[in-house]
């Protein structure tokens, strides 16, 4: 199983980025997929989750109203649209099925 994140980069405060996570090798649909981030010197923070069978979503309070999670099952790809970015959103963003993790993509928001 391989999860590969992309779409990170350097953006100014107030800007937008769209992260993608391409999944391969999964033999069955994962019950959920999540974006988790780790800011410099801090622990892991669950950012957003989408549940496969209900399409229900979860957002951390810190990103609610600014981030949108979605998935394209045909492309086996998870997305995170991030708008109104803030410097405190700076982190390495990982996608995960809970069991499998990608290597992460760096998001840096300058003030």
Features:
mainly beta, four-stranded antiparallel beta sheet, 111 residues, 0% helix
Descriptive notes:
With 111 residues, the protein is mainly β. The protein contains no helices and 10 strands. A 6-stranded mixed beta sheet has the order 2-10-9-4-5-6, with no helix packed on it. The radius of gyration is 13 Å and the shape is globular. The termini are far apart.
End-to-end separation:
37 Å
How many helices? The count is: 0
Average predicted local confidence, pLDDT: 94
- Amount of beta strand: over 45%
Largest sheet: 6 strands, mixed
Low-pLDDT parts are none
**Number of strand elements:** 10
Structural class: mainly beta
Helix content: under 10%
Shape: globular
Element layout with pairings:
Blueprint: E1 2-6, E2 9-12, E3 17-24, E4 32-38, E5 44-51, E6 57-59, E7 67-72, E8 77-82, E9 91-96, E10 105-110
Parallel strand pairs: 2-10
Antiparallel strand pairs: 1-3, 3-8, 4-5, 4-9, 5-6, 7-8, 9-10
